[in-house]
Structure formats: C-alpha cells, structure tokens
Specification:
42% helix; five-stranded parallel β-sheet; alpha/beta; homodimer; disordered C terminus; 219 residues
C-alpha cells in the first residue's frame, strides 16, 4: 500500500514517516504555493533518509486568504489550519491509498477533527492517518532523540520546508516584515539532518549557530 | 526504552504492538481481576508473535463498581471506561518508560482525554502512547489484513483475553446471565492467531465456527 505524508523536513513529520514505513510505501510530500523553494530542504532530508519525495502544488488564493486571516487575527493559528486542510485535500487527490501528516497529540494546530478526517476519507476514498496522534511531547522527544540527527533553533534561522515558510514570505511581501513579527510568535523549529549515529551518543541534537556579531540584519 | 502495552489478544492491540516494536522493547500486558484465566489466550498469542508477556492484577473493588454501573446504565460504556483507566494506572506503576493501549481513532470507549493522558504521564513519570489514535477503521482493517491471521466471530464465542471477559463473568454471577445479554449488545470480536502467511493470500481471516446443532447451550 502507498501512503503520501505531508512533509516539512522537521522532526515530527520525519518521525511519522518512520512509524509508517514498515506498513506502507511512504512518499514524503511537501506542499508548496510555488512562492519559494524551501521544499528543496525537505527533498534533501527525504533523500538522506531514503524516502521517495514529491511536491504538491497549493492554490495561491488559499495562501492569500490565510495571510489576510492571520493579519486580522494577529496570530497564525486559523490561517495555518486553513492551509493544512487544503494541503490534505490536495494530497488526497493524488494516487495514494493513504494520506498522512505529522500532527502530534499536543499540537493545538493543525487540528483535524474526527468528522473532518472521516469526510476526507469518504470523499476521496483514502485512509487518513496521523501516526503521532497518540504520542505526547515526551514520547516524541525520546523517539527523536534515539533516532534522528536534528538541528534546533529559532524559526527564522531554520529552513522549515513547507508552506509555513511561504506564508511568512507572502506576509512580509504584502504587509511588511513587521507583520511577520506580529503574527508569528518566536518559536523553536527543528530541521532533520538524517539518522542519529548508531553509537548512540547525544551529539544527535545540535543548536543552530546564532547570528554572529556583525550580521545583525542576517535574515 | 521499554513499553508495556495493555493487551487483549485482539487485532487492535496486536497492531498497536507492531507499530511500537521498532522503537521500544514492547511487553504485552494483560490486565486481570483474577476472576478467570482468559489472559492465557493473550499469552499464547504474544508467544506466537514473539513478544514478552506479563499480567497485571486489577483491584476487585473496581470490577464490582464497574459491574454495578453497567447494570444501572443498561450499557457497558462507562463501566469499561472506569476499568480501562484503572488498568492504565496499574500499568503505569510498573517499570516501563512508556505505557500504551490499542484504542483507535473511531473507538467511543475507552476514551482517554488529553488531560487524563497528561495527568497519567505527570503522576507516574511515564509516556502514555496510543499508537492507533490516528488510524481510522479503514486503515486498521487494511493493516490487519496485510499483517495478521485473525479469527472473527460473535463476542461470546471469541476468547477475548482481557478484563471484558471477566466483567461478563462477574455480571453473570452477580446479576444473572440475562444481565449480560441486556448490558452487552452482541458485537463482533477478533482473536489474533499469529502473523498472516507471507504468500499474501486472503485466507488470513477466518470465521469462528458457529455452534453446532446439538449444543444449543454451549457456553
């Protein structure tokens, strides 16, 4: 059976892929509005981990609506949610037996209700799977630590390879850089480099280098 | 890392074990009130599948309360829920890094809220994992079909190796056989015999033999 998993290159969606790979032929699918080529980071991680990789194109109108919604709200939650549901619809239209994402038990967003899941499955004739829906933060951290080599840092420094990065770009283009700072609270992002080394030392998690002095405007 | 998974010998908890086994040393744990030895079916399946097996003893008072609750309600949901939460507490007191169960996305019962999960984790210093929380009926059926050899039949004929069987026994002892029929709607149960044959034919799912004529009172 084939499954397409919405993939950002971060630890959650990578772990979700590892949970599925014994049971499905997993293709990592990065959704893009075609605004930036951040998806290339995801492609590289997918290759490093040995997974098939595809991109799926999202509707630019949805990006516009999501950005407007974020600016209105002053926070990104509802806009991200809109885009995630759209990305799931697009993935469900592809030729997979199952579509999946990296949402965890403790995520507030995106959040797909049982009714939304059932509707997606019925309309597209696919199974919708959330491998980490029953894993809390502690379990995810333990598994990532044992399994993956991860770079961690503030979100503006870590190449997050999905639509979130593009939404930030669009937000900056249409509403100015200060809108990005207003809408997106600073948070920590992860980028998966590959598998953890088999010797099991704790060097698997690196901090991203902070901006050096002399580059205060580094993007 | 070690995990203890509440195990009934059915398809859901067996599939949950297979999802975890790449990441944890999984012990299958069957909870028992010591009323019956139905757990022995689970032990045999665990052995067939190559998993470690343990039983954990539940408090008889909890069984009594649950049975009274079921009779009052006229349906088993709340009683089962009480017993399941108690079984999770007992499993969390064991020496595992993580405890888990076979609950699926579409199950109405047992149902452990996010707050209950977090509380269990905080009080016992364990992770609580629900490997099938993000899998709907369709995905579970596909995976079981590809992976396991299963016997299916009405619940009174299938040896369900966990506390549900004991609760039925207690209910019959204390309130008569007719109380069991009143409280438990007839439903289909599964019993895992082992792995599906590698040749992938569809003989993996058997119907349990119906009671033969001449044995109308077969239990």
């Amino acid at each position: 059976m084939d499954s397409g998993l919405l993939y950002s290159g971060g630890k959650d969606s990578t772990l979700a892929a590892l949970l599925l790979e014994d049971f499905y032929d997993v293709t990592l699918v990065t959704a893009t509005f075609g605004v930036a080529d951040a998806w290339d980071h995801a492609r590289r991680t997918a290759e490093e981990l040995g997974f098939d990789f595809e991109t799926v194109e999202l509707d630019r109108d949805v990006a516009g609506e999501a950005v407007n919604r974020m600016v209105e709200d002053g926070y990104p939650r509802n806009g991200i949610q809109q885009v995630h549901l759209h990305a799931l619809e697009r993935a469900a239209e592809m030729e997979f037996d199952a579509v999946a994402d990296g949402t965890r038990r403790d995520d507030r967003v995106p959040s797909v209700s049982r009714a939304q899941a059932q509707s997606l499955e019925d309309r597209h004739g696919v199974d919708y799977i959330v491998p980490l829906a029953g894993f809390g933060r502690g379990a995810v951290d333990s598994l990532v630590n044992e399994t993956l080599a991860v770079t961690t840092g503030p979100s503006e420094q870590i190449p997050k390879a999905d639509y979130e990065d593009e939404l930030r770009n669009l937000l900056a283009d249409e509403h100015g850089e200060e809108a990005v700072a207003e809408v997106f609270p600073e948070h920590t992002q992860t980028y998966v480099r590959g598998f953890a080394r088999a010797d099991g030392d704790d060097a698997a998690t690196d901090e991203a280098p902070r901006a050096e002095s002399g580059t205060p405007d580094a993007k």
